[in-house]
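#struct-help
A.M.: can someone run this one for me? Single chain, 393 residues.
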Amino acid sequence: MSELLNQAKTLAPEIVRWRRHIHENPEVSAVLPNTCAYVTAELRKMGYEPYEVGGGVVAMLDGQPDGKVILLRADMDALPMAEESGEPFASKNPHAAHTCGHDTHTAMLLGAAKLLMDNKEKVKGRVKFMFQPGEEGYNGCKNMIADGLLESPHVDVAFGMHSASASDYRTGTVLYSTGSYAASADAFKVTVHGKGCHGARPEEGIDPINIITHIHLALQTINSRERNQKEPLILTIGQIIAGDACNIIPERGYFTGTIRTFNQQVREHAKRRFIEIVNGMCATFGGHADIEWTTEMAPTINDPAVTPELLGYIRELVGEENMAEVPASMGSEDFSEVLLNVPGSYLNLSFGSKEEGYLFGGHHPKIRHNEDALPIGSAIYAQVAIEWLQHNN
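D.P.: on it. Structure tokens below:
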């Protein structure tokens, strides 16, 4: 076992303490005052001088002030739901819970910050720690980038991890993809305006329900007739809302959904055709539409040059037997915004398999995480930073 992993395991009680405090006190959205204050205070105890960027927390470690910069990222926000895990440190907030594991991400990165500060002489460059709010659909990553995250100093490479419970692999296994990690996610709300009237006199109105049903059917042709069939694409309409009574044609209705793909060109084509079909169908039946993109998230693509290098450093730490290549996910991850600007990589770390009794995955109210993975994650963050800087400065 490496010296770094030994140090992380010694630090494990502290990492667990951080994780449980954050887990008990979840906050939702891009505004996380208590979580940010807690992370800031813990970083200061380690000797950092953290500062606010785009609603998140950033800290710098200058091992070699004129060296290159690696960014390590963790997200901090919870989900707006009740927790049913049964853990003694379950959420104290009945309306918020860390059911996506961002508490584990934050704790692991705090652990890495401590490890790297303790091993500062090995850091042959600069490490930028990114503690991000608002990953769950609140544009948290975009906000931090817009506020200068990737500059002052300029970031050369970036790395992040996501905890994975109910995995097919035992706790501590590194789950990686060498190309696509996660799909894009473009969520939409389309309001279709017609003309309300009595249901007995439909000729006096313009029926938005009729328009929406035609739009729904027509949108399916993007996938079945226009897409390169070798490239996955999901277009889901998950909600249609219109009308208040059985005998009234409403004035308007709306529908919501999402478009997901691994390919940026497929994404752009699907969104363009979506707009054309919606507006075309509305024009055909005499209505009009307001199209709102409520979330726009690019696919998360691991850099083909950087990823094998970083995986090599991780393999040296955990061993080949604790590495597994897995397919990309049709879920989404807003770290994609960093990877659009900076070469880097993102992967999963198993926090419990079904065989080990961890039966529920992300966003489930009963999800639990095996805390034995926490020090492994902290050591991975630190290993990646130390080794990449040593080999690239």
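A.M.: thanks! The chain has a mean pLDDT of 97.
D.P.: also worth noting: The longest strand covers residues 233-242.
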